[in-house]
Amino acid sequence: MEKVHFIGIKGAGMSALAQVLHDTGYPVQGSDVDTELFTQKPLETRGIPMYRFGESEFGQGQIRVIASNAFKDDHPEIAKCGEAGIPVERYHHFLGGWIRQFTSVAVTGAHGKTTTTGMLAHTFGGLQPTSYLIGDGTGAGVADSTYFVFESCEYRRHFLAYEPDYAIITNIDFDHPDYFSGMDDVISAFQEMADRVKKHLVACGDDPQVRRMAKPKVPVLYYGFGEHNELRAEQVRAGADGMTFEVFMHNNPLGTFTVSAYGRHSVLNALAVIGVALLEDLNIDQVKTRLATFGGVKRRFTEKQVRGNVVIDDYAHHPTEITATLDAVRAKYPGKKVVSVFQPHTYSRLETFIDDFANSLSGSDEVYLCNIFGSARENDGGVSIEHLMEKIPTSRHITETNIGQLDGYSDCVLLFMGAGDIQKYQSWYEAR
């Protein structure tokens, strides 16, 4: 069996795919930067070799090279492969071929992809052999899998490399302003994606941008809270065990469901999972049991108790996601003061949505702002953290040297949000 080398193995999708191939029996190795990332822990647990860029040896014999989409063709390792005559496959192209051996379910949307994919993998995995790839850097290859559940990203239209049997669209929103020109461009991309689905589309019918899409080539099952959806939730309430709700399919009651997560968006995610399960004729009572035991995914509403406060780590990095996360906090902890510590991710996103960021963060009782975290594609821009602070006059700037500002809180929710390295701010606070 040929060895597989991953260029950029610590990327969330790359790490998850490496885990899938390793579990399936492939010898796997990879290279990346020295920086320690949470995505490398499952690789270390599996004993997958990791090298610094430029130090990996491909060795003798057959080797297959998969490169992260974060790196251009002039990356030294990619260029080295070209000189050696070794073909390099991009992550999304390899994955597009890999999924053909299963009944595949793609989960896409501007927000909620990772949690919905994790929820789907957990639910289906308890009923049928299911392999999965989740955008939090988690993956598993299960022997003789019936299903392959995976997160499908719209950035640069990468999801057009896939032809899944089913696709979930959680929502459509304008993000990645460094690539998409506006909402019409985003909708066009999702339309192209929908036309590649083989069997059925499961889409949030409450989302106005989803409803703007032209009718795709396959049937669509719409889910949501509105009565115009075929699959809908009613009587939604928050409780000690999560969100509980009644489910109806074509006005026929399916029973009471509970998902162990908070916020109305969590109910929508659960409806998407229920929708695919119904289309695959899975036992709905077993689906109900699995949903109630879903433990969440990494960096999505991850909680701990620290010195009398509830500390939450969340990946929210878009105004819509911040609003949803705050909604979940208010549902689970009504009456508690909510203190948000937010780190903007990418200059173009902050510059494009700066007013929306200010409005969404206003749902907090107090706001602290960190310096902007750039990316491999974008290290600077025409906006600074001071511009966002001007939009939120009561906000305060926070750095490693003044993290002590958080010491005075007790019996509060400290909500750390961002897609960069916001965890280091949380670590600084916890280490005091």
What does this entry show, briefly?
The protein has 432 residues and is an alpha/beta fold.
Q: What is the element layout, followed by pairings?
A:
Layout lengths: L2 E5 L4 H13 L3 E5 L8 H5 L4 E3 L10 E5 L8 H9 L3 E3 H8 L4 E6 L4 H13 L4 E5 L3 E3 L6 E5 L14 E4 L13 H12 L5 E5 L3 H4 L8 E5 L6 E9 L2 E8 L2 E8 L4 H16 L4 H9 L9 E5 L2 E6 L4 H14 L4 E6 L4 H15 L4 E4 L15 H7 L4 E2 L14 E6 L5 H9 L1
Parallel strand pairs: 1-2, 1-4, 2-3, 4-5, 6-9, 6-10, 7-9, 10-11, 11-12, 12-13, 17-21, 18-19, 18-21, 19-20
Antiparallel strand pairs: 7-8, 13-14, 14-15, 16-17
What about the largest sheet?
10 strands, mixed
Helix and strand composition category: alpha/beta
Low-confidence stretches: none
Proportion of β residues? 25-35%
From the N-terminal CA to the C-terminal CA, the straight-line distance is 50 Å
Rg of Cα set? 22 Å
pLDDT averaged over residues? 93
Question: Which strand order does the major sheet show?
Answer: 8-7-9-6-10-11-12-13-14-15
Overall number of strands: 21
Description:
This protein has about 425 residues and is α/β, with parallel strands linked by helices. Helix content is about 30%, strand content about 25%. It has 13 helices and 21 strands. It has helices at about 10-25, 40-45, 75-85, 90-100, 115-125, 185-195, 210, 265-280, 285-290, 320-330, 345-360, 385-390, 425-430; strands spanning about 5, 30, 50, 65, 90, 105-110, 130-135, 140, 145-150, 165-170, 200-205, 220-225, 230-240, 240-250, 250-260, 300-305, 310-315, 335-340, 365-370, 395, 410-415. Strand 1, helix 1 (about 10-25) and strand 2 form a beta-alpha-beta unit. The longest helix has 16 residues, at about 265-280. The termini are far apart.
